[in-house]
């Protein structure tokens, strides 16, 4: 059952939590807003009585039964109280713009922290992106603040409502049921509409994400180049237009359904107002109220009807806001908090790393077949091992399991005899320096692109140059310069695909970790260039545990041992010479690729 289906229907379900959070983040600002709302409520209550007195005195003045000084006095008070809401609104605007909306970023920061702490396996699930999208929309649109403000906005409306009820009751109580009954259809219809709108937007999330993704493809600096070469811009524009129009069509159909219902509700409200006018005329005719009271009564009835409609609308609107606030808090609560075994909290980052994999199994979800089955092997500290296999054999998945990106379905991965599941994520990540095939081209300086491997030491030029040299990228550093912006997006220097790959390798080597994992890091390079870079790296990683995942076998003869994967299982383990002599899977791969590494 979905999180939404378990939600309470109460508007108040998140009020305590958001109030606590707001007072924690911005106590003085929120207190100021509450004080302004209370003053607004008091002013609204008094203003009802002043408005009624103003109409009554004005009519009596023109009838000759009230003095001019009395009229001028009530006019001055009436105008003064009209100005009070504007002054309070300016104060609230100042607090909002200067203080609150700036500190509101704390909610987005918390969301980012939760996303950053999410297990990487979650990013393989499209529903996870839907949840992020909905939670992000809530905080980006100030949804939590609006939810809180929705309750504070009740104060002036309710006080105005009470004041109007008191004034009208002093004329005749028969006006009150007419006003209330006339807005009941509006209340019910808005409640149903807001629920339907939220559910529609929730269902629309995948389509909206697809629309936004396609827009990113059409406008992205890297994708535009390929679209132009392929001549496929028109196709992408077509499918983006279809997604956009489908979203617009869903919104339009929802609005059209609501428009007919809301028109009917407005007719009911109009008939209620007409009935009140007729009733007021009747009371004037039989002498129950004066002409001045008649004017005040009609004005008060209009205010009562508007206040009743406002309260009904605010109640239904708060339910919608509660749903959106729930998108944020439900996501925050759904993220599992990582708990590491406290008995290993004292362990420092080791200088050397023995890796043992025991009966490891993994599937991306419960209804999908296993990618890895009963994988077992040992890599000793300082050993240089290649895990080789054809595409689809499970190499990248195994890489992510070893470095902690994914957790195993069953089995264990041990570092120096300690189960990785007992280590904190930060400590586990500190053990590995990972160079991946699906690397990121950061639109930052060359220094940053390499130095991100160890951000605290980014100013160490000698170390940066050494890492680039080991990655075969020293010529790039000499040509471009460490502090030069890379990438066209910010008017920087663009590198070729192979050059970017060398920079990424330098980034991984820059991190001083006891174990280096290379997951197809040179797959975009020419096999001979790849062979040269990896053989140099093997020489430069002496003393560190090195694990290279590759579908190319040229590097294998430079390493201590080879583990061969086939269809998610360990097929062979041995040295280059041993496996060639065995004539198995490795020998087949070597014989197929030997032409790449010979003249």
Summary?
With about 600 residues, this protein is of the alpha/beta class.
What does this structure look like?
- This protein has 599 residues and is α/β, with parallel strands linked by helices.
- Helix content is 62%, strand content 9%.
- The protein is elongated.
Enumerate the strands of the largest sheet in spatial order, edge to edge or round the barrel.
6-7-8-3-9-10
Please bin the fraction of helical residues.
55-70%
Would you list the SSEs in sequence order as H and E?
Answer: HHHHHHHHHHHEEEHEEHEHHHHEHEEEHH
**Extended strand count:** 10
Beta-strand content estimate:
5-15%
Short descriptors:
single chain; 599 residues; alpha/beta; 6-stranded mixed sheet; 4-stranded antiparallel sheet; 9% strand; elongated; disordered N terminus
Strands, helices and their partners?
Blueprint: H1 15-25, H2 27-63, H3 68-103, H4 105-117, H5 126-140, H6 143-152, H7 154-171, H8 175-219, H9 221-230, H10 233-285, H11 291-334, E1 355-362, E2 372-379, E3 384-388, H12 395-402, E4 410-415, E5 418-419, H13 425-431, E6 432-435, H14 446-451, H15 461-470, H16 474-480, H17 497-510, E7 515-519, H18 527-540, E8 545-550, E9 561-566, E10 569-574, H19 576-582, H20 585-593
Parallel strand pairs: 3-8, 3-9, 6-7, 7-8
Antiparallel strand pairs: 1-2, 1-4, 4-5, 9-10
Helix pairs in contact: 1-2, 1-6, 2-3, 2-7, 2-11, 4-5, 5-8, 5-11, 6-11, 7-11, 8-10, 8-11, 10-11, 15-16, 15-17, 19-20
